[in-house]
Specification:
Helix content is 18%, strand content 29%. It has 360 residues and is an alpha+beta fold. The protein has one domain: Penicillin V Acylase, Chain A (4-Layer Sandwich). The protein has an eight-stranded antiparallel beta sheet, covered by helices on one side. The longest helix has 16 residues. The chain is globular, with a radius of gyration of 21 Å. The chain starts with a helix and ends in a 15-residue tail after the last strand.
């Protein structure tokens, strides 16, 4: 157990403490004409391959939270089966969907928020931040239940050097919440916009959108400046001034405007595909987050995977940096009362498949 914990702390230290590589997430929400709501997101890490897995968790599966120094925190048993997308460690579900239509995901939140300090007297109700998604997916059906459940636990960090996290929750009704823990107190925000990135806090990002009140879709009209005429160089000039860098505030702005300007699709599948198309704009190439010549890992992208979740139809979709084909897991086809727990690598081949067109 001690060696396992040491390995986990190394993962956390490298993924959440090392200050240089991109640790970014961008989340959006779209609704189809048939009223199906899709939540989608990216997950980035430019320092190494996250060895991501998809995890199938049956009803009745029991797990225990890590605490500083070992595994000895809250024990929890899944009331509902779920599918999760995990990073580095199968217990660390970064995005998931349960059989009742609850979606949950964690987003990196550096330098903001503060959890409770770990108290041994509360270890039986203490849960590690990286395991909160897995517990809530197994415990709750709706975002209202999430709010009540979080009141009953102490969310802690396994490693005090690690960054904090904030979370997105959505259910089949379309309601969406953001959870941030500030000075040990859980604070929920109604996320009617449906966008989430990283630091600063969610309310700050909403306020910051006011700095871009001048942006609009389409092409800016010709104008006169003194005695000369100014004409747009091309279409889309209404978005001149849109920030293009990869910082969290800039990604939040771009995500909000791309989401708002996207034409509504007729079907849920069309909306899922549209989410992936929009999130193409947030793929981060390896190299931009490091000084030239100091890229530490040979991976094709800092955007390690992108997912989209259809809560109503209980389907989670994903693609990875090694395979841009979209894959899906339909929870309706899983018997969560009988299936065995499993964790499966998202990619068995670390190479993008290429279809060769044969010309005869």
């Amino acid at each position: 157990m001690e060696s396992k914990l040491c390995a986990i702390l190394v993962v956390i230290t490298s993924f959440f403490v090392y200050p240089i590589p991109t640790k970014s997430c961008t989340g959006i929400t779209l609704k189809s004409k048939e009223e199906t709501i899709i939540v989608a997101r990216t997950i980035e890490w430019g320092g190494s391959n996250l060895n991501s897995q998809y995890v199938i968790t049956p009803r009745g599966y029991t797990n225990q939270s890590y605490i500083p120094g070992g595994m000895g925190g809250m024990t929890f048993t899944a009331r509902y089966g779920y599918v999760g997308l995990a990073v580095e460690q199968k217990d660390f579900i970064a995005e998931g969907l349960n059989e009742e239509g609850l979606s949950a995901g964690l987003f990196y939140f550096p330098n903001y928020g503060k959890y409770e300090n770990y108290n041994t007297a509360k270890k039986e109700k203490s849960i590690a931040d990286l395991q909160l998604v897995s517990w809530l997916l197994g415990e709750c059906k709706t975002v209202n239940e999430v709010k009540e459940a979080v009141k009953k636990v102490c969310v802690i960090s396994i490693d005090p050097r690690a960054s904090t996290i904030h979370w997105r929750f959505a259910d089949a009704s379309g309601r969406q919440l953001v959870l941030e823990i500030i000075n040990g107190t859980p604070i929920f925000y109604e996320n009617t916009l449906g966008v989430l990135t990283n630091s600063p806090g969610f309310e700050w990002h909403l306020t910051n959108l006011n700095n871009y009140v001048n942006l609009f879709t389409g092409t800016a009209p010709t104008k006169r400046l003194g005695n000369i005429e100014l004409t747009s160089f091309g279409t889309g000039s209404g978005f001149l001034g849109m920030p293009g860098d990869i910082t969290s505030p800039s990604r939040f702005v771009r995500a909000a405007f791309y989401q708002a300007s996207a034409p509504q699709q007729a079907t849920s599948l069309g909306t899922v595909l549209q989410c992936f198309q929009i999130l193409n704009n947030f793929d981060i190439p390896v190299g931009v987050e490091f000084p030239i010549g100091q890229v530490p890992s040979d991976i094709p992208s800092a955007t390690q995977w992108t997912s989209a979740t259809d809560m109503e139809h209980r389907i989670i979709y994903f693609r990875t940096m090694y395979n841009s084909s979209i894959r899906s897991i339909d929870l309706n086809t899983i018997d969560f009362s009988n299936i065995q727990y499993r964790a499966v690598p998202m990619d068995t081949s670390m190479q993008q498949p290429v279809d060769v067109i044969s010309i005869n």
